[in-house]
Design brief:
The complex is a heterodimer of chains A (about 250) and B (about 160). With about 250 residues, chain A is an alpha+beta fold. Chain A is built from nine helices and eight strands. Chain A has a seven-stranded antiparallel β-sheet with strand order 2-3-4-5-8-7-6, sandwiched between helices. The chains are: A alpha+beta (about 250), B mainly alpha (about 160).
């Protein structure tokens, strides 16, 4: 069917189906005869003389512009559609990378590792200690010589169930505290340091992280990071942090 | 890439193929351009280049209502031949125009627009206001009927 309407000039073949049909028919003898027939008729049509009155009134170089393609027809073009989707996907990936980079903070790898520890910790692994979390700073200093391992004021009033101090994979001293409220776990660990200068990499405020159904909120102070973690979402931790700001 | 443009003089050739009459073709051509100019002056410029051919087509149909009408008969058809181009070369443009203008609508419009070689397949469908299968049949029948007419009027003689 399409072969019967095949345009004479290749530049008129704008349709994908037509292009495919022409490709299939290129060795068809009957189609070759049709093409030569059509070309001969078209040549005769182009030989139609233009009367002097017309050429006087309309110069031969007078043209009608092609219509501007609407955004709808452009959007329906498969090539443009595919390009648009590809650009969209790249943009989404780029934005997620940027957001990810913005949310990064020194000590994040350790914090993520400790979230894994939190998910696998049983209460029996900790020494039973029933007190306010805020008072454990002195306990860690006196018993384990861990300076500045203080629970921030936002979480200081919460009652504890137990605590322990252990060395993580990198040999850093980590303090872990289990509290009653929402079965939260606190971690106190040394802040990340600059490899060249040995100085602490500081960051301001609270930073949220998520991992496999666990959420944490981290803050650095005096070279020690504090992380409160629980099984749940960031919004479960947000009220504690915002309460601190007030 | 240079912007593809439509030569305005092709509009006259279209009118001529539709009417096979120089005077009538000129009248339709001028009337169409006048209408376009008037619309432009009123701020309603025809944004679609197909507008010119649509407008001219309807003017041609109206103009041809007044003259002799094509009879609705089944014309003889013949297989396209290798020597058809040689037969067509011997024709005068007005003979072709007379043959096309005598075809019934919408075959007349389809043949006139197709052989102008100015439009792609989709534009042809839009201008002829036909479905793809119908356009294919109109063009195919037109070719075979024209071949039969060629065979009858100027039989090919091998040199």
């Amino acid at each position: 069917m399409l072969m019967q309407c095949a345009p004479l000039s290749d530049e008129r073949v704008t349709d994908r189906a037509m292009r495919a049909a022409l490709h299939r028919a290129r060795k068809n003898e009957q189609f070759a005869i049709q093409k030569s027939f059509d070309r001969a008729v078209a040549t005769l049509v182009h030989a139609i003389p233009i009367p002097q009155e017309i050429t006087d009134w309309v110069p031969p170089e007078a043209f009608i512009s092609r219509p501007q393609r609407s955004w709808r027809s452009l959007a329906k073009n498969p090539a443009i559609l595919a390009t648009g989707i590809a650009i969209g996907v790249i943009a989404v990936i780029a934005v997620s990378h940027v957001v990810d980079r913005i949310n990064r903070f020194p000590g994040e790898p350790t914090a993520r590792r400790l979230l894994t520890v939190a998910s696998s910790t049983h209460s029996m692994m900790l020494d039973p200690v029933k007190t306010d979390a805020g008072s454990l700073g002195d306990f860690f200093f006196m018993k384990h010589r861990l300076a500045h391992y203080d629970v921030p004021p936002e979480f200081a009033d919460l009652r504890t169930l137990g605590c322990r101090v252990f060395d993580d994979e990198e040999g850093q001293r980590v303090a872990q505290v289990w509290v009653v409220e929402k079965r939260m776990q606190f971690f106190l660990f040394p802040a990340e340091r600059d490899v060249k200068t040995g100085g602490v990499k500081h960051f301001n405020g609270w930073r949220f992280i998520d991992q496999e159904g666990w959420s944490g909120v981290v803050r650095e102070e005096n070279g020690v990071c504090f992380m409160a973690s629980l099984r749940g979402r960031q919004r479960d931790l947000a009220p504690y942090v915002s309460k601190g700001k007030e | 890439m240079a912007e593809a443009k439509q030569n305005l003089l092709q509009l006259y050739r279209f009118c001529y193929l539709m009417l096979a009459d120089t005077r009538k073709a000129q009248e339709v051509f001028h009337a169409t351009l006048r209408d376009a100019a008037q619309r432009s002056a009123e701020g309603e410029s025809p944004g679609d280049r197909l507008w010119f051919f649509r407008d001219a087509r309807w003017r041609c149909l109206k103009a041809s209502e007044q003259g002799l009408q094509a009879e609705d008969v089944d014309l003889e058809q013949a297989e396209l031949t290798n020597w058809a181009p040689a037969q067509i070369e011997k024709l005068e443009p007005n003979q072709l125009a007379i043959w096309i203008s005598a075809a019934p609508e919408p075959q007349r419009t389809a043949l006139a627009l197709f052989y102008l070689d100015e439009f792609d397949y989709r534009e042809l469908l839009s201008l002829c206001e036909t479905k793809p299968a119908e356009l294919a049949k109109l063009l195919s029948d037109g070719r075979h009927q024209f071949q039969a007419w060629l065979n009858a009027t100027m039989p090919f003689v091998e040199p």
